[in-house]
Structure formats: structure tokens, C-alpha cells
Write a structure and sequence with these properties.
Blueprint (H helix, E strand, L loop, with lengths): L2 H11 L9 H13 L3 E6 L3 E2 L2 E2 L3 E10 L5 E4 L14 E6 H5 L2 E2 L21 E2 L2 H6 L5 E11 L2 E9 L6 E7 L6 H20 L5 E7 L3 H9 L1 H5 L3 E4 L9 E4 L7 H12 L4 E4 L8 H4 L8 E6 L20 H20 L19 E4 L20 H6 L18 H16 L1 E5 H8 L3 H13 L3 E5 L2
Parallel strand pairs: 7-8, 11-12, 11-13, 13-16, 14-15
Antiparallel strand pairs: 1-10, 2-3, 4-5, 4-9, 6-9, 10-12, 14-16, 17-18, 17-19
Helix pairs in contact: 1-5, 5-10, 8-10, 12-14
The structure holds zinc ion (ZN).
The site of zinc ion (ZN) has 4 residues, from loops.
Length: about 475
């Protein structure tokens, strides 16, 4: 595929309003399947997937805010990021004071519209640039119209299993839930379809499972529907953020020295590229699910302008001007050369069980939900606006992580506690003591123990060794 064809597909897909469910995802998968065909499947609302339930399907007809003179001052039709994803329908006149509670801006990037979602907490909101917010008439009334539907429907996803002869199967996964954002993750979807098209035509030794799902809920649903097959996967990649202007970055698998990690690093060095290495981190994309204690699939990610690492991440400035199809083609070539290298091997070292270095004594916990990340928000363990965790757990400001990433309305301390919870769940496979986890993550012992005890109270962990 040439630059122009890639540009063409990027231009067709960029404007579509995608979310974790709805017609935007259907339309996107239909367009991608014109390039090469794959299965498009649906899971109905209310289906239980481990600890999660498929939510209602969300679709948007229109959304705007009008000023007193009837001018549309915020308009979903102009940019779909203006509407917080999963906003419930509303039609109401209100004061600025009331409207303000539902507006989100980015004071640090005042001309950008933020990307925000509220999938599991019924609410509504608009996202606007901080400059626009500053200029809003404060003594005026506004008419708010959100014409959305939240109904029983489906979650839509795609897959294609391309069979080889060896016993090894690898996963190539991406997500399809972001609206008009280009590097994260329109670029990943386009790379995914190009690689699928390429691999189908190629004489292959190994099998490759191509999966395209809405992030988190889609990966969890996929794992729950394909549990035994997914348990056997040897390793894989998440395709995301592959066309930005910055250097190449590689996020290692949780093993860190898995053969895929070694292979990627060797290739990147051979190609003489400037690149940066990130250790595995419990934040990120669907490796959080695929690498959970039950599945432990080693997953790597090669990015060009990695999520969290560029200023325009999750804003309207991550648009088609930010990315280049030539960068996407460069990443396509890199992934091809890595798969070619994988194809040379007859035997891979088996998936190693994750082992602590010294198998120390000490308190050990076992996750009672090892299949994926448990749904933390329904247990009040996930930060929501003005979340309670911070007040309950952390008035101490301890720096144990250097993280650029911030969730909506989530302050640093709350975000760190969420990290602590996730690390404890990730390592609580019965092998790691709290001391081991402290050594692995650099998080202080007391904070880990606090999180572990709270997870026990929520029936997500049980203690198996008092140490
Ligand atoms: Zn994202």
C-alpha cells in the first residue's frame, strides 16, 4: 500500500465517532474489512465477562450547547471530542454555573480539546478548549442538547486467525474505541489491517491471531470467550501509537527478557534506529488484561510517539496533522522484519512462569480474580470525579512513581494508589510476597500492604502466607 492509499484510509476513518460500543465501531470495522476481510462479531449487552458486564450500546445523533442568541457555541458535529463519550441524553436550559460543572478543559494546553469518557458512571459532559472556556459569557443561560441513546445492543469486535503449521500462535491486537484521535489509535488500526493483509499472503510457519476490540472491556470479553485458546498464546504485540513524529519507543513485556523482547531490541539496533526502552508498566493498553495472572501472555509494544509520552496525547491536537503515513509505513516495515525473524525459529523457549528473584518469605496474597483486571470502579477502587480513595488512603505524598499520565479529574496521589492496587493484583499469583512486589515496583511496603488489605476486604485477594 502506498502513502496515498494509507492517507485515504486515514481520512475516511478519522471523522467517525467511535466508542466502546455503537455504530462508529461497526462502520470502522466495515471500512477496514474492505482492505482485507476478517470476522466481525458482536456480544450482547448484559453478557457477563469475568468480573465485567457488557454495557448498553451508546449512539449519538447530535449534541450541542447554544447561547442565549441561539448560536451553537459547542457543536459535536464540528468535533466529536466535544462530547464526553457515553454521555446520557439531556435537553435543558441552565445557568453557566450549572453548565460549568459539566465542562472539561486543559489549562496547560489551552487551545486543545481534551478526550474524556464516562463509560460506567452515568453522566454527561462537554470538552472544550480552555481558551473557549475563558471566553464563555458567565452571566448567561445556555441550552444543552445531548441527543444520544443508551440501549440494549451489542459490543462489536473483529478477529482473524491466520493458521500456520507450527504449534506456536502469536497475538496481534489493537483497539478501536477512540473517536477522532489519530496517533492513539487510528494509526494502530491501520497498521493492524496492513499487517493482516500482508500475513495472509505470506507462506507462514506460525499462526497469528489478529484481534481488534474496544480497549479494556473488549479485551476482557475476548479473553472470556476464548479462554483456552488464549491461554496457549506464546506472545504478541499491541499495535498502538505508530505514526507520530517522535522517536521509536519499545515497551517490554512483563518478563522483560522474553524472546520477543530480545528479538525486537536486536532488530531495532540492526536497523540503527534511535529508540527508547520502557520497562513493563501496569498502566498502558490491553497487555494489562492479556498478561494478567491466569493468561500471562508476554506482550510488547513498539510505538512512534508512545501514549502518555507526547503532549497532544488524548487531545484534539492528536489529529491527522500530527501523524504521517510515512511513519506508519516505517513501523509496518519494522513489524514485518520482526515477524520475518520470528518465522525463522522452529522452537521458542516456553512461556516462563513469572518467578520472584529470591522467593522470599513474607506475606503472600492470591488474586481471587486472576483472569483480567477486576472491575475496580464498582468497588469504589477506581477514581471517579472527586474520588473517595484519596481521602481514605492517602494524605501522605510519597513519590514512588514518575508518571506523566493523568486520568480525568484524577490527581497524582489517587493515580498512584490505583497503580499500587494494580501492581498488587498483577503479582498476587501466590509466588510473590509483598517484599518481592516492593522490590519489583519500588512502591513502599506499607503502601502495598495497605492496598492488599483493602483488596482482601473487597474479596479480590486472599492471604495465603502470613510470612
Ligand atoms: Zn488512548
Amino acid at each position: 500500500m502506498q502513502n496515498m492509499e494509507i492517507d485515504n484510509i486515514l481520512y475516511r476513518l478519522f471523522p467517525i465517532c467511535r466508542s466502546i460500543t455503537g455504530d462508529g465501531v461497526r462502520k470502522t470495522l466495515a471500512i477496514l474489512s474492505e482492505i482485507t476481510n476478517f470476522e466481525i462479531l458482536e456480544i450482547p449487552t448484559k453478557t457477563k465477562c469475568y468480573d465485567w458486564t457488557i454495557p448498553k450500546e451508546w449512539n449519538v445523533n447530535d449534541a450541542y450547547v447554544k447561547d442565549q442568541n441561539g448560536n451553537k457555541i459547542i457543536d459535536f458535529q464540528k468535533n466529536n471530542l466535544h462530547l464526553k463519550s457515553y454521555s446520557i441524553p439531556i435537553h435543558k436550559k441552565m445557568s453557566f454555573k450549572e453548565l460549568e460543572l459539566h465542562l472539561e478543559t486543559l489549562p496547560d494546553l489551552p487551545d486543545a480539546i481534551p478526550y474524556r469518557t464516562s463509560y460506567y458512571k452515568e453522566s454527561w459532559g462537554f470538552c472544550i478548549s480552555h481558551n473557549q472556556f475563558t471566553n464563555l459569557e458567565k452571566n448567561s443561560t445556555y441550552e444543552v442538547v445531548i441527543d444520544t441513546t443508551l440501549k440494549e445492543g451489542n459490543l462489536t469486535y473483529g478477529q482473524k486467525i491466520v493458521k500456520g503449521e507450527s504449534k506456536y500462535e502469536f497475538l496481534i491486537s489493537t483497539y478501536c474505541c477512540h473517536p477522532s484521535l489519530a496517533n492513539d489509535n487510528l494509526s494502530g488500526m491501520v497498521l493492524w489491517i496492513l499487517l493482516l493483509q500482508w500475513i495472509k499472503k505470506k507462506k507462514r510457519k506460525h499462526s497469528y491471531r489478529f484481534v481488534i476490540v474496544p480497549e479494556t472491556i473488549g479485551a476482557i470479553a475476548y479473553l472470556s470467550k476464548n479462554e483456552s485458546e488464549m491461554k496457549k498464546i506464546s506472545g504478541g504485540f499491541i499495535l498502538t501509537c505508530v505514526a507520530g513524529p517522535n522517536n521509536i519507543e519499545y515497551k517490554k513485556s512483563f518478563q522483560g527478557n522474553h524472546f520477543l523482547d530480545n528479538l525486537v531490541l536486536k532488530k531495532l539496533e540492526e536497523l540503527n534506529l534511535h529508540f527508547k526502552i520502557h520497562d513493563f508498566d501496569i498502566n498502558g493498553s490491553d497487555e494489562r488484561q492479556y498478561s494478567s495472572p491466569f493468561f500471562r501472555i508476554p506482550i510488547g509494544t513498539i510505538c512512534k510517539s508512545k501514549y502518555y509520552e507526547y503532549d497532544y496525547y488524548h487531545t484534539s491536537k492528536d489529529n491527522l496533522e500530527f501523524i504521517k503515513s510515512k511513519n506508519l509505513i516505517e513501523m509496518f516495515q519494522i513489524y514485518i522484519s520482526i515477524i520475518e525473524e520470528m518465522e525463522r525459529f522452529e522452537n521458542f523457549q516456553d512461556k516462563e512462569i513469572l518467578n520472584p528473584k529470591n522467593n522470599s518469605s513474607g506475606k503472600k496474597f492470591l488474586s481471587l480474580m486472576p483472569y483480567c483486571e477486576p472491575m475496580l470502579s464498582k468497588r469504589n477502587l477506581y477514581p471517579t470525579n472527586g474520588g473517595t480513595i484519596k481521602q481514605r488512603m492517602f494524605d501522605v505524598k510519597k513519590e514512588h512513581h514518575d508518571r506523566k499520565y493523568q486520568d480525568t479529574n484524577e490527581n497524582k496521589i489517587t493515580g498512584k494508589y490505583l497503580d499500587t492496587i494494580r501492581w498488587v493484583l498483577f503479582y498476587s499469583d501466590g509466588m510473590f510476597s509483598i517484599e518481592d512486589i516492593a522490590e519489583k515496583t519500588g512502591i513502599p511496603y506499607d503502601e502495598l500492604l495497605l492496598a492488599a488489605n483493602e483488596l482482601c476486604t473487597n474479596n479480590l485477594l486472599k492471604i495465603i502466607d502470613e510470612g
